[in-house]
Design a protein that fits this description.
The complex is a heterodimer of chains A (167) and B (226). Chain A is of the alpha+beta class. Chain A has three helices and seven strands. Chain B has a single domain, classed as TorD-like (Orthogonal Bundle). A two-stranded parallel ribbon of chain B has the order 1-2. Classes of the chains: A alpha+beta (167), B mainly alpha (226).
């Protein structure tokens, strides 16, 4: 199965809480096409309480079965990468809009669509060009039975190539 | 209730049985023995001792005896497995329901069970094949011929036996033995198939002749009324 794994650096930002009872919530803001030489959890900047944190690098997997979804993503006004966080831990990074939006249905989870860097766009486009197999839509319809179709009954004499071990 | 396993023993009936019916019972019982399980060394020895006469059936039994004299019980066991057991299914499905409808456990099996119930026959403990297996039907025919089973529950006189044969064996058994002769793994069982096909043909013609003989006087009587 053709697949390709890119390593991306994940950057998240948290704002100071609006009330004394609230806590900080990290939200992804960017992915770096080349992981930065920083430890995960490094605070990159702190401007008036707005912290930008580097969460380390994470895999982005391209799978040949999802190339149609990648094409939709690349055809959008702004191609995106969906990043999902569990607290300060990166849960999933995907360029598949359907997978990302499915994760966004969980209110307990932080999911953001961040801009896809041009280098990642080029890698995804190259993967799609290499592995995309168009699947034409076929409307299935009920049709009357025909005598030319195969007999549903089992053969009276089982041929040697129909035996279990032969397949 | 009779049990199928002791059906083929004519000694316990005490009733007079015509000689040809004893011989018919032996034919049916022999076929049943060969179809229910692969023959062991003693059975093969008994088969090898069969003397053949000039009739086609005698020649077929002689050919089977000659094969049995040189056969290896383990090889026949493997052949039986390939033919009737198999992985998933064997090469053949020796069931009346499959031959008559294309599927197992269909209406022919239900009709057979109704008739077996009328005869007072039930499946022996430890036998898991449906009753429409060819070996079971041969055992029932052997039991009826030897007097161990009484077919009068199905019809008067010979009609019960003829009716049982016509309903449950005649429609498909000849086709089954033809298939057995053609099955890719059949070697020893090809000789069994020859015997079986000839025997089914003889029984079919004999029951047809008996039916024609019984119908003729009635037709003559009917002619006189008009």
């Amino acid at each position: 199965m053709p697949r390709e794994i890119l390593r991306l650096g994940i950057v998240a930002r948290s704002h100071p809480p609006a009330t004394v009872w609230g806590g900080r919530v990290l939200r992804p803001v960017a992915v770096l096409p080349v992981p930065a030489p920083l430890a995960a959890g490094t605070v990159m900047s702190d401007i008036e309480g707005v912290q930008t944190v580097y969460l380390g690098d994470h895999a982005l997997m391209l799978h040949h079965g999802e190339t149609a979804h990648y094409l939709m993503n690349l055809g959008a006004a702004r191609p995106s990468v969906w990043v999902s966080l569990d607290g300060a831990r990166v849960h999933l990074v995907t360029p598949d809009p359907f997978e990302g939006e499915a994760l966004a249905g969980d209110p307990e989870r932080v999911v953001e669509a961040v801009a896809m860097p041009p280098e990642v766009c080029a890698a995804v486009a190259a993967f799609v060009a290499a592995h995309h197999a168009p699947e034409p839509f076929e409307k299935r319809k009920r049709k009357p039975a025909s005598i030319t179709e195969a007999d549903p009954r089992a053969p009276r004499i089982l041929a040697p190539d129909q035996k279990w071990g032969a397949r | 209730m009779h049990r199928i396993e002791d059906a083929t023993d004519p000694a316990d009936t005490g009733a007079f049985i015509a000689e040809q019916d004893v011989l018919r019972a032996q034919h049916w019982a022999g076929l049943a023995r060969l179809m229910v399980a692969p023959p062991d060394a003693a059975t093969l020895q008994a088969l090898a001792a069969v003397t053949a006469d000039d009739t086609p059936l005698g020649q077929a039994w002689g050919a089977l005896g000659a094969r049995a004299a040189v056969a290896d019980p383990a090889a026949i066991g493997q052949e039986f497995f390939e033919l009737f057991v198999g992985v998933g299914r064997g090469e053949l499905l020796p069931y009346a329901s499959f031959y008559l409808t294309g599927f197992l456990n269909e209406r022919p099996l239900a009709e057979l069970r109704r008739d077996l119930g009328a005869l007072g026959i039930e499946r022996a403990a430890g036998r898991h094949d449906p009753e429409d297996h060819i070996a079971t039907l041969c055992e029932v025919m052997a039991g009826i011929a030897s007097g161990g089973f009484v077919a009068s529950g199905l019809g008067c006189g010979g009609a019960g036996e003829a009716g049982f044969f016509a309903r449950h064996i005649e429609p498909w058994a000849a086709q089954f033995f033809e298939d057995l002769a053609q099955a890719p793994s059949a070697d020893f069982y090809r000789a069994v198939a020859e015997v079986g096909a000839l025997w089914i043909g003889i029984e079919t013609r004999a029951f047809a002749m008996a039916r024609a003989g019984a119908a003729a006087p009635r037709a003559a009587a009917g002619g006189r009324i008009h």
